């Protein structure tokens, strides 16, 4: 079936779904395949659950006209999303980066919502499936789409750009993330800059943090750049007033008090303010949006549990984000501080070196008591008796049962797979 014909059927559906457990009446179901499943086998179940049509790529499952047979379901989903995006003609802002993508996306959305009808990526649905689903959620009322793009291998951002056709874009930063797939920090820079490559090739606008030398270098020969940062020569100039415990900054003569901690979040806030300024959102509306934004989902949340105060930053971790969190925590003036760090994943053959580098930093800086959790941290060499290692979460749990923590200020940071938010239950 041609994409134009499929689009006509899509237009009669209420939405798109790839999971039979989440089917809503009159959805268009895409029978995706994975390493351990074949969505074709669930097509009939999708129809029984209320789907109007099912897109399949195995002929034996296409038993009546409710089944739409295509060559490849995933490619069809992506092509339909591109066709839909181009048909609507929505302005698309794309963002990627090693750290802070989701927080930055949510801040941008909060600011732009003050003036525009937006549709933004839900959670971190930012891959080759999530980006098409985000585009297909947009409709005629959407004025600006905000599309988060994630990647752990080269050419993935390039593919997502070919799907989303962004008009504007930004890269939050370049850090030591997904080194297993990118190979090195140079590989990270090259892969993330695929967004710049697309935007520059299509004469689109790039938002650049002037205080990030890599961003400046990667866009130095391009003139459609909107700059922001601490320099007086930028298009949107900002000033840091304080970052402890929350980021406070000056914009347009007004003081903005955010609910986010750390210098690294200043950069995320700065992006949102710059984009709001570019799209002519009133300064007072920008201020209100930033001050009202509350972090969720274990991303730089400041929580209280009994007598303990906690910076919960356990949604994800890599060497760059972990070091930034530790630097921020070091600056906090608190009487009793404790740090819980979980393993960092997807580092490939650099895992041993990167985990040892974190331990070396901890030994050289006084951050209070340190608890390291996971196989990688357990293998590190530790010389300081303030640092305790636990091979498993269960080992940590047993320790805390005998050594309860009270009246302390805690940092909890680790990769998603470590699920360190479970520590809250132990306090």
UniProtKB/TrEMBL annotation:
GO terms for biological process: cell division; cell wall organization; peptidoglycan biosynthetic process; regulation of cell shape. The keyword Cell cycle applies. It catalyses: D-alanyl-D-alanine + UDP-N-acetyl-alpha-D-muramoyl-L-alanyl-gamma-D-glutamyl-meso-2,6-diaminopimelate + ATP = UDP-N-acetyl-alpha-D-muramoyl-L-alanyl-gamma-D-glutamyl-meso-2,6-diaminopimeloyl-D-alanyl-D-alanine + ADP + phosphate + H(+). Its EC number is 6.3.2.10. ATP binds at residues 97-103. Residues 96-275 form the Mur ligase central domain. The keyword Cytoplasm applies. InterPro entries: Mur-like_cat_sf (IPR036565), Mur_ligase_C (IPR004101), Mur_ligase_C_dom_sf (IPR036615), Mur_ligase_cen (IPR013221), Mur_ligase_N (IPR000713), MurCDEF_CellWall_CoF430Synth (IPR051046), MurE/MurF_N (IPR035911), UDP-N-AcMur_synth (IPR005863). One of its GO terms (cellular component) is cytoplasm. Gene3D superfamilies: Mur ligase, C-terminal domain (3.90.190.20), Mur-like, catalytic domain (3.40.1190.10), MurE/MurF, N-terminal domain (3.40.1390.10). One of its GO terms (molecular function) is UDP-N-acetylmuramoyl-tripeptide-D-alanyl-D-alanine ligase activity. Pathway: Cell wall biogenesis; peptidoglycan biosynthesis. Residues 14-82 form the Mur ligase N-terminal catalytic domain. Keywords: ATP-binding, Cell cycle, Cell division, Cell shape, Cell wall biogenesis/degradation, Cytoplasm, Ligase, Nucleotide-binding, Peptidoglycan synthesis. Residues 299-378 form the Mur ligase C-terminal domain. It is an enzyme of class 6 (ligase). It is found in: Cytoplasm. Belongs to the MurCDEF family. MurF subfamily. HAMAP family: MurF (MF_02019). Involved in cell wall formation. Catalyzes the final step in the synthesis of UDP-N-acetylmuramoyl-pentapeptide, the precursor of murein. This is UDP-N-acetylmuramoyl-tripeptide--D-alanyl-D-alanine ligase. It comes from Gelidibacter gilvus. The gene is murF.
């Amino acid at each position: 079936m041609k994409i134009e014909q499929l689009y006509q059927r899509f237009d009669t559906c209420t939405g798109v779904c790839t999971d039979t457990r989440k089917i809503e009446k009159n959805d268009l179901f895409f029978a995706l395949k994975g390493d351990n499943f074949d969505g074709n086998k669930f097509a009939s179940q999708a129809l029984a659950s209320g789907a109007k049509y099912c897109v399949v790529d195995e002929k034996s499952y296409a038993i009546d006209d409710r089944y739409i047979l295509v060559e490849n379901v995933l490619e069809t989903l992506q092509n339909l999303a591109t066709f839909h995006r181009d048909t609507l003609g929505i302005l698309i802002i794309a963002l990627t980066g090693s750290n802070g993508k989701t927080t930055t996306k949510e801040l941008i959305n909060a600011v732009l919502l003050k003036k525009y009808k937006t549709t933004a990526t839900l959670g971190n649905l930012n891959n080759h499936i999530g980006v098409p689903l985000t585009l297909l959620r947009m409709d005629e009322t959407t004025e600006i789409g905000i599309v988060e793009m994630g990647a752990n291998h080269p050419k993935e951002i390039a593919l997502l750009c070919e799907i989303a056709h962004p008009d504007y874009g930004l890269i939050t930063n370049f850090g030591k993330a997904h080194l297993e797939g990118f190979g090195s920090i140079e590989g990270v820079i090259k892969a993330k800059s695929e967004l710049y490559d697309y935007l520059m090739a299509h004469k689109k606008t790039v938002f650049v943090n002037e205080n990030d030398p890599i961003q400046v270098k990667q866009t130095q020969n391009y003139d459609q750049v909107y700059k922001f940062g601490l320099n007086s020569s930028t298009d949107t100039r900002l000033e840091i007033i304080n970052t402890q415990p929350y980021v406070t900054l000056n914009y347009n003569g007004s003081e903005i008090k955010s609910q986010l901690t750390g210098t690294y979040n200043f950069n995320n806030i700065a992006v949102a303010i710059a984009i709001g300024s570019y799209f002519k959102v009133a300064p007072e509306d920008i201020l209100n949006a930033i001050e009202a934004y509350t972090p969720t989902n274990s991303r730089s949340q400041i929580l209280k549990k009994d007598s303990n105060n906690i910076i919960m930053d356990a949604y994800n971790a890599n060497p760059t984000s972990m070091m930034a969190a530790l630097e921020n925590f070091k600056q906090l003036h608190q009487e009793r501080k404790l740090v819980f760090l979980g393993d960092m994943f997807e580092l490939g053959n650099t895992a041993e070196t990167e985990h040892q580098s974190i331990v070396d930093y901890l030994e050289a800086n006084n951050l209070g008591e340190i608890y390291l959790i996971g196989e990688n941290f357990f293998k590190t060499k530790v010389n300081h008796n303030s640092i305790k290692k636990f091979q498993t979460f269960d080992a940590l749990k047993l320790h805390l049962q005998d050594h309860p923590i009270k009246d302390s200020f805690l940092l909890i940071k680790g990769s998603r797979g470590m699920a360190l938010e479970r520590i809250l239950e132990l306090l």
